[in-house]
Write a sequence for this structure.
């Protein structure tokens, strides 16, 4: 593997280069095309000849309903991540802060609000195409409800909130019925918003089931990919997975998404067959908890250079949970109500712990890195409990690093690297694959 | 009621507001002319639980938790706030960027301040409080009662009322698990609704008074009274609030309006009463907006800087009183029209409608009703300026703030935002900013629609 020529200034973890070069997946080339096509499609939809309505949706929105109505979903959170990965978020955040939005608010929200207020953006200088309607689901946080309210005020746009009760440790029938009723209403609401009559139930359900089947196929492929990462060395680390998240988030329910993940799965299977790892000299297998630090993948490369690979992320794993079963066809809206209410960020700590432990065991991890992301309270609050549980119940070392997913002002890279060094030393000192309590 | 009586009533309410947890278990703090829950006068030296036949105390954390159901289950509802002082055990549970109220609340519970509580009821409010609930569930004493009222975020829309009623029903079914509690019956629920309606009506009289005659009753005092009323036995609280209102409303009815002279209760901390009448110049009239405040200190700071806090959009006072269709805070009266024979589901359904139709908290959607409420309030109360008390790391309030500020300033009311943490303000800096703000109000003068700038 190529490495940078820089040496490790700390010297704490051996004669390693500062950063490892990425061993990119060949499918990344297709990924760039998909991203471009998605956003160009959205601009075209709102162009002079465009006729396709655009909805701004949250990442946990029941997007299959919109797709079945032939509405193009656009994801401001993904746009925030895109701006973050270009290290351009701070300027947009500051615009939002100047308008009165506190620096303590979610940086995805501030980035998007800054772009919206200034009319500037990172895709050819343009902001996201204007929405025809807005749909936010509370299943990922309460913040998106408030953020979408701000957006609705700005554009004078119809807004629908999918109000998912907190599924701490399951759902009552009344809770499922409440969400299901809203999904019924969403069909009517979205139809009105795009000035079309609501579709007949039969025709709509036929289209919806088709979209749901594509979602099912994509999530199944995504799960296969996670399973392939159990190999030693792992064929894909966090950088591959964070960048490859784009289709399962923004193209969910499309044939393009399925087609793309077939290629990724085949490539990873090939790597596994060849014994080719994402990281040279894999010594430590780690789990990442929380959203990526989009503006500083060097922290991950720093770990890669020291033989530490990420074999799983709770964040990427969460997108494989949307599984529709064949029997759900009898009442797809109820299935959606149930599944969308039990996404990772809408379940209790006990359930999150179970999922994390399952992943640690399945991926044979040696430690867990928690990104304490100040923007994302639903994800971050509770990490102290989870970290304690991993240490006390699994006997594995953990590290909590303080940062933010897009606002680089929240990260102190130097001290964080020092903490990474200490964590690596802890891994090297005691936690071999044989020692942890992974039974 | 004599003047000394209403002074004593006020003192008791304010004393109870100072440390609600202590007031719920400390016989001395709970002393006074107590009235037990419908069973006649009780010993002045016994704590609320003892006075009310050892009713279990159930702490709750959100104004959307219906006290009526807790009362109907034979329990004493106690509004919980954040623990004062430096943070303790919460630092090992929640990061510093969790809402400071949620952190302080959890800190108090983990520090054992909730000892003596029969149980705690959380409700769906925001991401931080949800996290506090999850931490509390992981660390609470084994077997202690904790219930999560999984309320909707949308107060309008398909199924919201039915769903809320079902969650109220789950609370009613769960509460008898509290030691000493009883099953919720239609009669008990009807009586509890009536009791809370009367208490809110009495508090609303004071709410009107602090706007019409801030020289008689300060906004900071109303907040302390409201907190005291959420602490003490509700029947006793009703009598005390009525006593304060009766004692003050006499001179108030003879007053000539907001700037009129009159005898009143002066001071904040010492609650000394000033008798006699004294004309005073009109002071800037302020409305404060924010969440739950553990102390009235931020309002006192505004008053001490030379303004009157004549209205509020706070969790425990203005918004808690402003139930729809009941005028300015006249209580909701849900279920009052129903006969005691009405069944529990029907009463819970009416109660859910009442709670959903009140002026919403910023955690609830849509936000427009709260803004409409604010705009109506600043007009009807002739408010000159609005001070936002933004709890550190409170997302819902912070998201609403820019648009609300814009709308209020467009209506001619300058706005100021102050960041509060665990009920307090950084005194020196905040005081200077408030003084500068009041100077600005004096310079700007009255707003076009009647909001009076001071002469």
């Amino acid at each position: 593997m190529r490495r940078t020529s820089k040496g490790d200034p700390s010297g704490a973890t051996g004669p390693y280069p500062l950063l490892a070069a990425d061993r990119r997946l060949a499918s990344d080339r297709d990924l760039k095309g998909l991203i471009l096509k998605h956003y160009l499609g959205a601009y075209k939809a709102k162009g002079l000849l465009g006729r396709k309505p655009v909805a701004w949706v949250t990442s946990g929105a029941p997007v299959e309903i919109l797709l079945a109505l032939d509405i193009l979903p656009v994801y401001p959170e993904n746009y925030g991540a895109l701006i973050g990965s270009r290290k351009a978020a701070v300027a947009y955040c500051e615009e939002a802060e100047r308008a009165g939005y506190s620096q303590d608010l979610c940086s995805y929200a501030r980035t998007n609000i800054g772009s919206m207020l200034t009319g500037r953006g990172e895709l050819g200088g343009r902001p996201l195409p204007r929405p025809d309607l807005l749909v936010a689901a509370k299943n990922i946080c309460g913040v998106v409800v408030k953020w979408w309210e701000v957006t609705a005020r700005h554009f004078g746009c119809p807004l629908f909130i999918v109000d998912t009760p907190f599924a701490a440790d399951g759902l009552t029938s009344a809770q499922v019925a409440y969400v299901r009723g809203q999904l019924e209403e969403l069909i009517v609401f979205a139809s009105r918003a795009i000035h079309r009559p609501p579709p007949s139930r039969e025709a709509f359900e036929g289209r919806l089931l088709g979209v749901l089947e594509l979602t099912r196929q994509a999530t199944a492929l995504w799960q296969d990919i996670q399973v392939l990462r159990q190999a030693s060395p792992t064929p894909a680390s966090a950088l591959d997975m964070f960048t490859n998240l784009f289709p399962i988030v923004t193209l969910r329910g499309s044939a393009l998404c399925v087609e793309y993940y077939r290629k990724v799965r085949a490539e990873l299977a090939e790597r596994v067959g060849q014994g080719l790892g994402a990281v040279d000299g894999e010594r430590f297998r780690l789990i990442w908890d929380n959203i990526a630090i989009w503006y500083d993948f060097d922290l991950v490369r720093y770990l890669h250079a020291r033989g530490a690979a990420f074999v799983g992320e709770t964040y990427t794993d969460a997108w494989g949970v949307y599984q529709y079963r064949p029997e759900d066809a009898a009442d797809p809206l109820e299935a959606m109500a149930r599944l969308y209410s039990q996404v990772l960020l809408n379940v209790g700590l006990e359930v999150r712990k179970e999922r994390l432990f399952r992943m640690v065991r399945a991926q044979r991890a040696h430690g867990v890195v928690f990104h304490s992301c100040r923007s994302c309270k639903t994800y971050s609050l509770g990490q102290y409990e989870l970290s304690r549980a991993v240490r006390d119940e699994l006997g594995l070392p953990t590290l909590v690093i303080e940062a933010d997913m897009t606002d680089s002002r929240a990260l102190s890279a130097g001290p964080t690297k020092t903490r990474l060094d200490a964590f690596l030393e802890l891994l090297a000192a005691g936690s071999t694959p044989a020692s942890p309590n992974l039974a | 009621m004599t003047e000394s009586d209403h002074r004593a009533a006020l003192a008791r309410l304010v004393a109870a507001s100072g440390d609600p947890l202590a007031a719920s278990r400390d016989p001395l703090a709970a002393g006074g002319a107590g009235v037990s829950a419908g069973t006649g006068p009780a010993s002045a030296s016994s704590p609320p639980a003892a006075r009310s036949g050892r009713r279990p105390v159930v702490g709750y954390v959100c104004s959307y938790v219906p006290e009526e159901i807790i009362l109907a289950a034979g329990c004493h509802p106690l509004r919980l706030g954040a623990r004062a002082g430096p943070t303790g055990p919460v630092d090992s549970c929640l990061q510093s960027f969790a809402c400071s109220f949620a952190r302080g609340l959890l800190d108090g519970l983990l520090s054992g301040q909730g000892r003596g509580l029969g149980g705690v009821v959380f409700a769906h409010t925001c991401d931080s409080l949800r996290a506090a609930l999850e931490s509390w569930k992981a660390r609470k004493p084994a077997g202690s009662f904790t219930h999560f009222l999984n309320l909707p975020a949308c107060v309008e829309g398909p199924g919201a009322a039915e769903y809320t009623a079902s969650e109220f029903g789950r609370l009613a079914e769960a509460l008898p698990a509290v030691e000493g509690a009883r099953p919720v019956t239609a009669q008990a629920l009807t009586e509890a609704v009536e009791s809370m309606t009367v208490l809110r009506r009495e508090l609303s009289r004071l709410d009107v008074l602090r706007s019409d005659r801030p020289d008689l009753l300060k906004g900071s005092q109303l907040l302390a009274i409201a907190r005291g009323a959420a602490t003490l036995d509700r029947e006793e609280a009703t009598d005390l609030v009525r006593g304060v209102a009766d004692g003050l409303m006499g001179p108030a009815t003879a007053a000539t309006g907001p700037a009129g002279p009159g005898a009143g209760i002066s001071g904040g901390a010492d609650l000394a009463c000033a008798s006699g009448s004294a004309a005073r110049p009109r002071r800037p009239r302020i409305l404060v907006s924010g969440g739950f405040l553990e102390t009235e200190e931020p309002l006192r700071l505004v008053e001490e800087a030379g303004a009157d806090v004549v209205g509020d959009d706070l969790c425990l006072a203005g918004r808690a009183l402003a139930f729809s269709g009941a005028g300015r805070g006249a209580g909701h009266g849900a279920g009052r029209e129903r006969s005691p024979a009405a069944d529990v589901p029907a009463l819970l359904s009416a109660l859910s409608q009442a709670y959903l139709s009140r002026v919403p908290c910023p955690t609830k959607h849509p936000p427009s009703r709260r803004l409409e409420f604010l705009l109506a309030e600043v007009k009807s109360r002739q408010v000159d300026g609005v001070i936002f008390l933004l709890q550190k790391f409170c997302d819902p309030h912070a998201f609403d703030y820019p648009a609300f500020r814009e709308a209020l300033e467009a209506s001619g009311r300058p706005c100021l935002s102050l960041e509060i943490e665990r009920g307090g303000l950084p005194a020196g800096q905040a005081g200077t900013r408030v003084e500068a703000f009041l100077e600005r109000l004096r310079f700007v003068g009255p707003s076009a629609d009647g909001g009076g700038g001071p002469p």
Notes: The longest strand of chain B covers residues 117-123.
